[in-house]
Amino acid sequence: MDLFIASDRQLPIRYYVNEAIWIRRGCFSPPQLTLPFFVEVEIKNSYNLPIITQYIREFQCQYKYTEMQILIKDQTILAEMHDMLTEQLLSNHMVSIHPLLPK
Length: 103
Hints:
single chain; six-stranded mixed β-sheet
């Protein structure tokens, strides 16, 4: 998986076939995740990262407060996601972004 998104609330699954992005229920939980609900995200092209940001923002709009953890394997994607998310997320939601540590 390219990244994991965990939350204190149930996360929706999504399939963006044309953009080659799959957000599906996680079956393997990295030890770094401390929140109960998570999805695995597979993304074939980093140019489509704004779709992931939009997914997170739409999720946050459903609740007054959420807590999220994002674990990212690739350092380039990590830097891009950090920049995009710090600019666009709602202030009353907590998001932490970390590199995915190897097993």
